[in-house]
Design goal:
306 residues; alpha/beta; TIM Barrel; eight-stranded parallel beta barrel; four-stranded antiparallel sheet; 19% strand; binds flavin mononucleotide
Length: 306
């Protein structure tokens, strides 16, 4: 690849070689994907949500296909923070791309302790998941109100010098208010959005398809909602926005940049096409070249509103 157009973007102190990050929960810790394509090409990789202790997640069935999307209620299955730090993080750091640790907890103290531990590692940024709809305690409870977001981010901020990205839920009254609360409490970026709370029903058994009854909706079905929320947040905050929700193609990713995102995360698309991130990066490069753009960063917020 030639060096122009320049695909580099900055999320605060973190420099990404391009705006495409593999989204939390859809790329594991990169191990399964490392044989599929050269992961050093990625802008970044976000880990599966890590909790203080190992979790087996929710009982199956925990995924269901829906029109233009999917529901999941995985429930944060992960090896726990210590194994993440000793086994998964070194592997992720060896891949030659930016590594973001996505973390979740039941209490403020959980988030504080995890941030303190991660501060002593070489992780590039921490994404506070305040938006998982599939666990009983904590997580989305913090992210759905401005006071919840502010209280948590303010308590966690002094625990680490690492950049803090706050991942917010679309299951809230006004995304501008939770984004403003994150910024005012010391977040370096907001990641928008996590999954939309949803449901599917089997009419023969009259039972919910998911054993958890409800789950998080992701994929193209949520893209218009996610795009609108990124646009709203962009008008409300000055910190960078990492946009996501239903990105399948390079064109989708460009839409998120125009709406105000500095970088994007690609989730469900990886489950459909393991080469999705690579295809999206290539298509963004081609688009920028075609329109004679020197720097992809110039697209952020360049939407021409009516
Ligand atoms: C199977 C699955 C597991 C997920 N696990 C996590 C997680 O552990 N932590 C998190 O913050 N988001 C998680 N997400 C949410 C995604 O990172 C992303 O925010 C959401 O799916 C919207 O993007 P998409 O439509 O491109 O998938 C998960 C999504 C899916 C589909």
């Amino acid at each position: 690849m030639s060096t122009t157009p320049d695909l580099t973007v900055r999320i605060g102190a973190v420099v990404l070689k391009n705006p495409v990050i593999a989204a939390s929960g859809t790329f594991g810790f990169g191990r399964e994907m490392a044989d599929v394509f050269d992961l050093s090409q990625l802008g970044g990789i976000c880990s599966k949500g890590v909790t203080p202790e190992p979790r087996v997640g929710n009982p199956p069935p925990r995924v269901a296909e829906t029109a233009s999307g999917m529901l999941n209620s995985v429930g944060l299955q992960n090896p726990g923070l210590e194994r993440f730090v000793s086994e998964e993080l070194p592997f992720m750091k060896s891949l030659g791309t930016v590594v973001i640790a996505n973390i979740a907890g039941n209490t403020v103290e959980d988030y504080q302790a995890m941030c303190r531990r991660l501060d002593a590692t070489d992780v590039d940024a921490i994404e506070l998941n305040l938006s998982c709809p599939n666990v009983k305690e904590g997580c989305m409870a913090f992210g759905s109100t401005p006071t919840g977001v502010a209280g948590l981010v303010r308590a966690v901020r002094p625990m680490t010098r690492k950049p803090l990205w706050v991942k917010l839920t679309p299951n809230t009254g006004d995304i501008r208010e939770t984004s403003i609360a994150a910024e005012a409490s010391g977040a370096d970026a907001v990641s928008l959005v996590n999954t939309l709370l949803g449901m599917a029903i089997d009419i023969r058994t009259r039972r919910p398809v998911l054993r958890n009854n409800t789950g998080g909706l992701s994929g193209p079905a949520i893209k218009p909602v996610a795009l609108r929320m990124v646009h709203e947040a962009y008008q409300a905050v000055g910190i960078p926005i990492v946009g996501m929700g239903g990105i399948l193609t390079g064109e989708d990713a460009i839409e998120f940049l125009l709406a105000g995102a500095t970088a994007v995360q690609v989730g469900t698309a990886n489950l459909v096409n393991p080469l999705a991130c690579q295809d999206i990066m290539d298509a963004m490069f081609r688009y920028a070249k075609e329109i004679g753009l020197e720097r992809i960063a110039d697209l952020t917020g360049a939407l021409r509103i009516w």
